[in-house]
Amino acid sequence: MTPRSTVDSAKAGNYVRVGSYLDMQVFRNQRIGTYNRESVLLGCEVPEIDTKAADYRELRGSLAPGLSTCTGCAAPVVFNLVAKAGQMRAAFLKKALHQEGIMAAAELERPEVMKVLLNDGRPAPHDLARAGLTPAIVKRVASVRERLIEEGVYFKMVFAGATGCMTVTTASYPNNIWRFPYFHSAFENIGAVVAGLESGARALQRTRRLRTPHKVIGFAGDGGSFDIGLQALSGLWERNQDSLVVTYDNEAYMNTGKQRCSSTPWGANTTTAPVGSMVKGKQTNAKDIISIALAHNIPYVATASPDDAEDLIIKVRKALMIPGAAYMRILAPCPPGWSFEARHAIALSRQAVDTAAFYSFEVETDARNRRRYFTINNVPRIFFDDESGRAEIGAYASEQGRFTHMFRDSGQHLLQEFQGRTDSGWHNFAQFFGLATPEAAEPTSASPARE
Ligand SMILES: Cc1ncc(C[n+]2csc(CCOP(=O)(O)OP(=O)(O)O)c2C)c(N)n1
Ligand code: SF4
Ligand SMILES: [Mg+2]
Q1: Inter-residue contact 95 to 148 (CB < 8 Å)
Q2: Can you state the percent helix, strand and coil of the chain, rounding each to 5?
Q3: How far is the CA of 164 from the centre of ligand 2 (A)?
Q4: What is residue 102's predicted lDDT score, i.e. its pLDDT?
C-alpha cells in the first residue's frame, strides 16, 4: 500500500526537509524514533547518548528524592528527562576524551578525575594531584573541552518554574528538591523571569564575574505558557534570548482543579467546560502554540512525548546547544485530570502520537538564510489505512474518563466529529509545512479546522 502522504519535491531543498516522510515506506507503522540525530543549525550530529542511562528507572541526579505528585503523573518524567539531557555534558566529555585516546575508560570513571575535568578547565592544584592528573594531560583535556564549548556542549543550568503542578510537587517551600539553582516564578511571567536570568548571566559573563556559560531553562504548564504567560514568552522569543522554555502540557489548569484552558482538546470534560445535556465539554480546538512560536522565527521549536525518552533527550540537547531561544511542548498525561490509571501514563503518551492527538516533530529555523528544516520524529498511524490498522482517535479517547460521553449511545456523532477534527488538524499541519496529504477528511461545518 502507498503511504497517504508524499513529499513535495519542489520544496525539499528549501524550507522543508522531511526525513521521516522519505523513509516512511521502510518504517511504515513503526516508530522511527530518533534516527535523525543531525542538527542542521548546529552543522553537526548530536552526539550519541546512552539510552540505558535514559531509562526512567535510572533517572537520578536532576531531582533529589522526595518528589511527590498527586497520583504519579508523567510530569516528573518530563522534568527529569529535561534536566537529564542537560547533564549529558559529562557523558560527552568522557566520550570525547576516550575517543581521542587522551584517557582510559577506567580513569574517566573515577569521580575525582571527572570533578577536575568538569571544573571549567581550571583545576585547583591540589585537585590535580588528588586526581592523579599531570599538567600535560590536563592541557590536552582543556583543548578538547574548548572544542566542546565551541559546540555549545559545556554549560551549567539554571531552572525557573511557573506556578503549577510542577512547583506544587517539586518546589513547595521549604522542600525544593531540585539539585540546580531554581527560581519559582509567578503563574504569568515565566518568559520575563527566564529573560531576566539570561540577561543577568550574560552581563556577569561580560564583566568576567561568571566564567561558565549558563543555560536558563523555564518550565511552565500549558496555562502558564499558552494562556496567561504568552505575552512575556512572546517578548523572550522576539528578542531571541538564549534559553529553553518547556511547556509540560497536561491540557488543563490541573493543580487548581481541572479547569479548561486553551490547550484542552475539543470535547474534553473539564470543570469549567463540563458535559451537560446541551453542551458536551470544550467547544473549541486546542490552541496551535507551535505556529505562534514559529511566527517569532526562533531557531528551535519542537514537541515531544515522554514515552520516547531518547527522542525527548536529543531534542532537549539540540534546544540547549543551538544559540538563541528554543521552545518545546511536551505532553504530560495527568491521571486525575484525564481520568485514567496512573500506570498507563506513558502508554497513553504513545497512543496520543499514534492517533495524531499529539504530533512529535521539530523545526529548526535559520532566519539569516531564510530556511526552515522540519522533521517528523514519530509518524502517527493516521497515515495508514491498510490491514495493519489506522489508529483511530477513539482508541486513545476510550482510555480516558474525560471523553466517556463520546462512548455512550448518544455520543457517536461526537466521536465522529472528534475524528474529523483530528484528521483535518493533521491535514492543516502537513499543509502548513508544504506536505501533500491527499486524503484528509473534510471537517464538518460545525468544526472549524483551526480557530
Ligand atoms: C495571576 C494568577 N491567576 C491565577 C492563579 C491561580 N493559579 C495558579 S496555577 C493555576 C493554573 C496552572 O495551570 P497550568 O499552567 O496548566 O499548570 P498545571 O497546574 O496544569 O500544572 C492557576 C489558575 C495565580 N497563581 N495567579
Ligand atoms: S494534577 Fe495531574 S499533572 Fe498535576 S501533579 Fe497531579 S497527576 Fe500530575
Ligand atoms: Mg496544565
Answers
A1: no
A2: 40, 15, 45
A3: 9
A4: 86
Tell which wins on pLDDT, 269 or 171. Answer: 269
Q: What is the pLDDT of residue 72?
A: 65
Whether the CB-CB separation of 302 and 247 falls below 8 Å is answered with: no
pLDDT tens digits, residue range 374-389? 777 776 765 554 455 5
Name the phi and psi angles at 183, rounded to 5.
Answer: -115, 120
> Which three three-digit cell numbers place residue 224?
502558564
Longest dimension (CA), the chain: 78
Nearest to 100, CA basis, from 149, 132, 134, 137: 137
Ligand 1 within 6 A of 164 CB?
Answer: yes
CB distance 265 to 357 below 8 Å: yes
3-state secondary structure of 249: strand
Q: What is the identity of the amino acid at 10?
A: A
CB-based burial label for 167 (10 Å; 0-12, 13-18, 19+)? buried
Cell of 103: 584517557
Residue 228 alpha carbon to ligand 3 centre in Å: 12
- Long-range contacts of the stretch 3-9 (C-beta < 8 A, 24+): 3/28, 3/383, 3/384, 4/383, 4/384, 4/385, 4/437, 4/438, 4/439, 5/383, 5/430, 5/435, 5/436, 5/437, 5/438, 6/435, 6/436, 6/438, 7/435, 7/436, 8/434, 8/435, 8/436
- 376 three-class SS: strand
Task: Return all residues near 316 (Cβ < 8 A) that are at least 6 apart.
Answer: 81, 82, 85, 86, 244, 246, 304, 328
CB 400 within 8 A of CB 338: yes
The C-alpha cell that represents 361 in the structure block: 516533530
Q: Does residue 287 contact residue 370 with C-beta atoms inside 8 Å? A: no
Helix (H) or strand (E) holding 299: none
Superfamily of domain 9-45+159-432: Thiamin diphosphate (ThDP)-binding fold, Pyr/PP domains (3.40.50.970)
Query: Which is the closest atom of ligand 2 to the Cα of 248?
Result: 3
Length of the chain: 451
The residues spanned by each domain of the chain are 9-45+159-432
Whether the pTM exceeds 0.90: the reply is no
Beta bridge partners of 63: 178
Q: Which of 63, 67, 69 to mutate to test the pocket of ligand 2 (most atoms within 8 A of CB)?
A: 69
Q: Which of 69, 71, 168, 255 to mutate to test the pocket of ligand 1 (most atoms within 8 A of CB)?
A: 255
